[in-house]
Every structure is written in C-alpha cells, then in structure tokens.
Amino acid sequence: HDEKDEERPLAPPLTLLTLRMTKKTKSVPSLLHSPSCVLRLPPALISSRSPPPGACRPPAPLLGTGMRFLPLLLLALVACSPAIGDSCGSSADCSVNGDRICDLAYPGGYCTVGGCDSDTCPDGAICVEWRFTPDRTAATFCMKKCGGDGGCRNDQYACMGDDDPRLVDPETGSSIARVIDLDVDESNPPNYCVAVEADPLTL
C-alpha cells in the first residue's frame, strides 16, 4: 500500500538530549537504577505519552503518600497536648512552645498561662485574677473550668467559685479570686479547679 497510509510515529525519536550518569555521579543517587543510566528527553516536553521501555525515570515520590496522613498526625498531637489544669513537673510538660507554665505551688503541678487577659485562655479554661486588692499584688492565671468536683483531676482539687468560703481572706472577709472573663453569665459565673490543700493566700 501507499507510504502515506503508513502509521507515522506520534513524536520524533527521543534524541534531543542524552544524559549519561555513571557510578561517579553522587548528586542524584536515587535516579541510578543501573551502573550506567541513560536519561532520554523528548525534543518538546509536551507529549503526554509515557517514556518508552528502557528510558530512565526517577522513582515515584513518597511525599505525596505521607502528606495524606499529616492531618491525622496533627490531630493526634493536638489531642495529646496537655490542657490547663493538667499535672506537670516542669513548664516543658505543659507546652513545648513556651506559652504555658507549670505552677508547682499546686500539688502535682498545674499547667496554666500566667498574665492572661479577659477571654484569652484556651478552650476549657477561664482567666482568674488573684489577690486583686491592692492592685499591686494582682496576678492573673488561666484556671480549668469545671461544673463540679468531678471535673477536676483528683480529690486534691475542688471546683470552686469566686464566692467559695475557701477563697475568702479571713482578715478582710473578701474573696481573693475573681473571674475576669467578659463572655460569662454573671448570674451563673463559672467555677474553676483549685487545690484543696494549698493555702489560697499563697497562690
């Protein structure tokens, strides 16, 4: 039959560039499938057809597979992160970022954030101002929010509110602690976990 009817190749022979790498090549060892590897590239890198058998190609990257599990890994790390009120032996136990401290005045340590402002504590915590009279002695800390003693980590802690008798200074008859968060129900202020055995006046 006529030569015009013969099937023509879809792309010119892959002869534009030939790169030969030997054992001496150390910069891209992952591309060496044999002591001598020939990488042939098409003249115009527009063909969607796969390289013919024998052409050298890099192995499939593993990063794409690993990235699929990254969200699960991050979720696990967040779930395992210490919360406000957790036990600790040092501030590193509370946060590797240095944004939380371990208050060792509490039995077993107490993960908290010092110097908090209104509505800035992490979820599940509230900002409490201690020893606010006079002003120069005031200090604020994030405390674990609770709805009852069962919400605190063990029997060394109790769920207290601003008006709890255990937080009242016997000399002044006033509470030494108060919640300063603005986003709270004033008719039903939140309670927080405080050590039962610790002297509130030293916290």
Number of helices: 2
Oligomer: single chain
Sheet with most strands: strand arrangement:
7-9-6-5-8
Q: Estimate the helix proportion, in percent.
A: under 10%
Question: What's the number of extended β-strand segments?
Answer: 9
Report on the structure:
There is one protein chain. With 203 residues, the protein is mainly β. Helices cover 8% and strands 21% of the residues. It is built from two helices and nine strands, in the order ββααβββββββ. It has helices spanning 63-68, 70-80, and strands spanning 17-21, 37-41, 101-103, 110-112, 125-130, 139-146, 157-160, 177-179, 191-195. Strands 7-9-6-5-8 form a five-stranded antiparallel β-sheet, with no helix packed on it. Strands 1-2 form a two-stranded antiparallel sheet. A two-stranded antiparallel ribbon has the order 3-4. A hairpin with a 6-residue loop joins strand 3 and strand 4. The longest helix has 11 residues, at 70-80. The chain is globular. It starts with 16 loop residues before the first strand and ends in an 8-residue tail after the last strand.
Summarize it.
This protein is mostly beta strands and 203 residues long.
Which key phrases capture this entry?
globular, five-stranded antiparallel β-sheet, 9 strands, single chain, 203 residues
What's the structural blueprint in terms of helices and strands?
Blueprint: E1 17-21, E2 37-41, H1 63-68, H2 70-80, E3 101-103, E4 110-112, E5 125-130, E6 139-146, E7 157-160, E8 177-179, E9 191-195
Antiparallel strand pairs: 1-2, 3-4, 5-6, 5-8, 6-9, 7-9
